[in-house]
Design the sequence.
């Protein structure tokens, strides 16, 4: 790309632009996750016992994972055809509008069954937006990266996940501390959903200042565009799509077991207060954030695939530890368990975005990486909290650990057989 013909992105601008967008997106996504456990069962699904109401609430949580591949296909098409910049802005607005709308929804007591239906529609919109956001943010970073620092650049949008989780969990914690339970359930829970509009405005401004990536411009100049990226991915890169999806399912499963499931387990089974459970979660997220950059540095030295293989083996072993820690009744051991799980999450999450992106050429990279990541979300996360709650109720907490170990074994096999071919950037 000629410096005189097109604005050149500064490294700080690129990395901050990829980080701020995913931080906003994941903040929006996680405030829903917290509310799905702490608020929505009572307000949108009354009349059932506590377990059934929680399962119904988590079913709406799953909707976003089912809609994320639709967002990947839609935004991926325009991201590969029109450009990364336009698509990133559109995905951010889709996510933001859906999130703010949740803050204004009436409860079941006000409009009956229409309330959970509207909640599901907003959750669907969140999924579509995030399905288009993640891939573009990762590509913004790695398509501007030197070849020997792709994992390092690619980890910046990944850092948006722990930062977004800290902001969302911290907001809920502050509100529950500052308000009575009645006021929080009446209107307090709406505040973070509505306040996210301020973050969206900031993200929108930053995203509009970013130029296209050199890789996309080069592919466009060399006429490498494909007519329908979605079709090309399924026809020519089927193995990368299938095995990449299976390779990434453990990333999703370990995260949502350590967050949504553990939030439910700690409040319902262990007997922690909402405040105590949120404090444990927020403390563990620090380990998640710390190990993302560490994993990226290691991945650039030993390879992204090898890093994921080693971490997946560790997660498979970690699955056997569930009964020891979670049946202990010890606050220290439960906290240590969640911190260990989130540390492993940091190790696997740091390089996974770069790894999935390297499976596809520039002409279909937005679509291919986004579809792979978000299809893994369906298999690894969409129903994970519900499955884990059902397993723990019926077979005990050890079965939840086996659930994770089996998923890790599937990911490990996929990582071992997946193509090692790296496409040009």
Sequence:
């Amino acid at each position: 790309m000629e410096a005189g013909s097109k604005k050149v992105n500064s490294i700080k601008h690129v990395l901050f632009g990829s980080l701020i967008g995913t931080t906003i997106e994941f903040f929006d996504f996680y405030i829903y996750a917290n509310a799905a456990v702490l608020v929505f069962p009572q307000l949108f699904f009354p009349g059932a016992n506590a377990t059934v109401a929680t399962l119904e609430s988590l079913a709406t949580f799953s909707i976003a994972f089912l809609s994320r591949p639709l967002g990947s296909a839609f935004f991926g098409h325009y991201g590969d055809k029109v450009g990364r910049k336009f698509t990133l802005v559109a995905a951010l607005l889709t996510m933001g509008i859906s999130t703010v709308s949740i803050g204004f929804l009436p409860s079941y007591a006000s409009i009956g069954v229409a309330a959970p239906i509207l909640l599901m529609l907003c959750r669907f919109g969140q999924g579509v937006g995030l399905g288009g956001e993640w891939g573009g943010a990762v590509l913004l970073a790695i398509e501007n990266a030197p070849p020997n620092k792709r994992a390092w650049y690619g980890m910046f949008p990944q850092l948006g996940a722990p930062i977004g989780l800290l902001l969302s969990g911290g907001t809920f914690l502050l509100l529950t501390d500052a308000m009575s339970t009645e006021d929080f359930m009446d209107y307090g829970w709406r505040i973070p959903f509505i306040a996210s509009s301020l973050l969206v405005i900031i993200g929108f401004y930053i995203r509009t200042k970013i130029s296209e990536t050199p890789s996309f411009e080069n592919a466009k100049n060399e006429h490498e565009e494909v007519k329908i990226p979605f079709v090309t991915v399924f026809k020519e890169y089927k193995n990368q799509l299938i095995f990449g999806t299976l390779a990434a399912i453990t990333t999703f499963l370990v995260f949502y077991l350590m967050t949504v499931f553990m939030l439910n387990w700690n409040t319902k089974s262990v007997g922690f207060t909402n405040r105590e459970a949120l404090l444990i979660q927020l403390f563990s997220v620090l380990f998640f954030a710390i190990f993302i950059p560490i994993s990226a540095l290691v991945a650039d030295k030993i390879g992204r695939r090898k890093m994921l293989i080693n971490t997946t083996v560790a997660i498979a072993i970690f699955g056997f530890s569930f009964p020891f820690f979670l049946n202990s009744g010890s606050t220290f051991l439960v906290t240590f368990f969640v911190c260990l799980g989130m540390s492993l999450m940091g190790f696997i999450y740091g390089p996974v975005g770069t790894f999935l992106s390297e499976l596809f050429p520039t002409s279909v990279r937005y679509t291919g990486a986004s579809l792979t990541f978000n299809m893994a979300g369906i298999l690894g996360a969409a129903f994970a909290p519900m499955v884990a709650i059902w397993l723990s109720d019926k077979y005990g907490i050890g079965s939840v650990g086996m659930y994770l170990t089996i998923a890790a074994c599937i990911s490990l096999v996929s990582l071992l057989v997946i193509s090692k071919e790296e496409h040009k950037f």
About this structure: Residues 11-417 form a domain with the Growth Hormone; Chain: A; fold (CATH 1.20.1250.20). The radius of gyration is 21 Å. DSSP finds 20 helices and no strands in the chain. Confidence is low (pLDDT under 50) at residues 1-5.
